[in-house]
Amino acid sequence: METRLLLLFLSVTVLLLDAANAQMPGFVSFDCGGSENFTDDLGLWWTSDDQLIYGEIANISVANETRKQYTTLRHFPADNRKYCYTLDVISRTRYLVRATFLYGNFDNNKVYPKFDISLGATPWSTIVISDANTIESSELIFLASDPTISVCLSNATTGQPFISTLELRQFNGSIYYTEYEEDFFLRVSARVNFGADSEAPVRYPDDPFDRIWESDSVKKANYLVDVAPGTEKVSTQMPIDVNKDSRPPEKVMQTAVVGRNGTLSYRLNLDGFPGFGWAFTYLAEIEDLGPEETRKFRLILPNMPDLSKPAVNIQENAQGKYRLYEPGFPNISLPFVLSFKFGKTSDSSQGPLLNAMEINKYLEKRDGCLDGSAIASIVLQYSSEDWAKEGGDPCLPVPWSWVACNSDPQPRIVSIHLSGKNLTGNIPTDLTKLNGLVELWLDGNALTGPIPDFTGLINLKTIHLENNQLSGELPSSLVDLQSLKELYVQNNMLSGKVPSGLLNENLDFNYSGNYNLHKGSTGGRHIGIIIGSSVGAVVLLIATIASCLFIHKGKKRYYEQDQLGHALPAQRIVSSLNDAATEAANCFSLSEIEDATRKFEKKIGSGGFGVVYYGKMKDGKEIAVKVLINNSYQGNREFSNEVAFPLIPFLFLFFFFSSILFWMLNYLCFSAPCLFFHNSSV
Fold first, then answer.
1. Which is higher by pLDDT, 467 or 520?
2. Which of 299, 550, 608, 676 is spaced 20 to 30 Å from 362 by Cα?
3. Cα(first)–Cα(last) distance of the chain, in Å?
4. 602 labeled part of a ligand binding site
């Protein structure tokens, strides 16, 4: 039983919450600067804007203003940026957006702020504060074309931009349809409830769309002045048929003013005019007229005689009493100061009657930046970053803090500055769609992957991609960027070869710190390898041939002398005692040896397979002569080794230094481009 009661209680709670939300479909109400959500006395649910990362909060206190949403505000720096609120909407649906501003001297400067408000790329209004204790309000009616809208504050000329509340109200059906809505917004200039019994406006819940119908009893400068004598307020408790679109709420139509003297006249300033506008009056016969009584009248506008011709008979036009009739002009040119009059016709027994009036100015939409879609895709990749949350159009009415745009009516992005913004992943390919781009600064991030093809960006002059983790080769398409003057890609992980077209004096090019990136073409390196190898091989070959010829020549002379020296059966080798370490072996005739040794007169020693004799040459050089004592194979081989031994160090050194020369040539030819690359890129 207790479980059932608990479930019943929870079900009722959910139904109540659903009912509370259901009474405000499509409503968004931001309490700017507020710290908590709440429901006001009208039943409207207010949400804190504490998710906004920009601006500062201020508390204010204004006499006679007790509504919670007007005790705080959010203000922003007076700089060259814009600060935006982004709201979700349903595409192809009409909305009213309303922003209010209560200064309250929040900055203690007593300098009344003046700044701009915009909807997306379209300038909406200039907010001019003239009283610290008066709420300024601005409303716009629009057909949503995207899933979000942005309301932005910018361009402060005095004081700081600020906002108290921001409200979004969704319309149903064809209300406020115009044939111009694809190209124009409707900026609300006047919405008046005539015959009101107090100064309180009519709004939600009496108006299901929470439009604010201002009372004609409010007294303010240039607002419904020059009232004609004999103007009288009338009202009824009878229900009014206001049709399914609920153009004006019933409560508004239950009051009116009547010109008992035959005339109704007013003068008021129209915010945003002169210009073309949408102007409608709302009429319902709420007085009980006798059978012989009639009410006919005409609208009279100065200098517009053609508009004064049609006559209005409310009861006839509305097909009965207590029914709405709404004559108006979907497109009319109006001045800033509007004076209008309703005068009864000559056959009318009653004076004119007026229940309500709306006047809206057509505000031409600006299409915004041509690169909007491409830059939106880039922002989406980094939606959690602060720089990606600025909102609004990238260029209009002022550009984002990290972009620069040209001055075309529909501008293009010409510069992107995202240095040191913690960018990760590949360089967004949508950057290659920014056809007007002149400067790209993405240095100091953690970007990876290859450099994309910027071929289509014919105006690109500056590219800064240094200090990232980019890999792959430098695209050869960079050579085709004829406007390119500055290319910085140092300290990445690029590899391959540098396109030769980038190595020209007109380009400020830095590519150091990419240790696998080499200057010059691969073909040149192959030629260097071939030349180095060939030169080394030729030198080695020449050295080998020369050595062989030298040895062969020595042997030949030895055998010739051996045959001449028939008195000695074996070879004879003569060496200098003084220069044994520096001279090579030489061949002498037998007669020269006999003269030097005086026919082998003085024996000075003996060794393996031979006896050593002292001798002295004609030039005074002392020598030692070894004579082979037998003609065995072993003795002959050992003796020959002693003769050839002085050539071995020479050949070893020759081959050693030839090998070193061969490898040096190879190294220089293969590595010189790399060495030159490192030096030239510092």
1. 467
2. 299
3. 84
4. no
